[in-house]
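ligand=2-phosphoglycolic acid
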Amino acid sequence: MNLLRFDSEEAWVSAVASLWRDRLRANPHLRICLPSGNTPKRIFAEMGRAVAAGWATFQHAEVFALDDYGGLAPDDQGRCVNMLRRLLLAHIDLPQYRFHFIDTDAPDLDQLCRDYDAAIGAGFDLTLLGIGLNGHLGLNEPGTSPDSTTHRVRMHESTIKASAGYLTHANLPTWGVGVGLKHLLGSKEVWLLANGAAKADIVQRLLKGPAEVSVPASLMQRHPNCFLMVDAAAGALV
Ligand code: PGA
């Protein structure tokens, strides 16, 4: 795993956005898997500015949402699809039909998972990931098989608690559907992103500890093209 540590959050945001622009220039048809949550917020805003300035275009790219919660209203601002729409898609030029998301309201979730796997098809060129405090990647909680594809998940207690930060009510989700580790490990390139002091411990564990299923992010140690990109606070212990 390659470690890129930046002196400040500003430097981290602008470096990640600049690398992302490079990848889009090199491959306009980039197939990208994206997380929601707090980690990518400023990076998404920066990409919106890049598109507005004409420095980047998503016109030929394809975006896949990493996961989504179940049991929330369709317009709930905490749904991952709505976070992605609000924080990124509203500010870039990606055609709607090139955005794939996980509709957890679908009547048949097994079919939904199969359909999402089929849409993912040959896989992702680039995957951006936040890191859960328990080491999860998306909804791949500790113990998830590295061979998992898109699947339904019962969320761990700390993941349920973390979801409160995205919601305006106390009706927290307990389950969701997410892209599996097989797709994430199979992505041609992966960026593990972390900012802020709260992530320092898990960043240390995933990088310096053994690669094991109890810390899903540590499995990226085996990925041949994975970059762990952190600001000074998240990288304080590595
Ligand atoms: P965060 O969440 O980006 O809001 O910190 C990351 C995660 O829990 O996967």
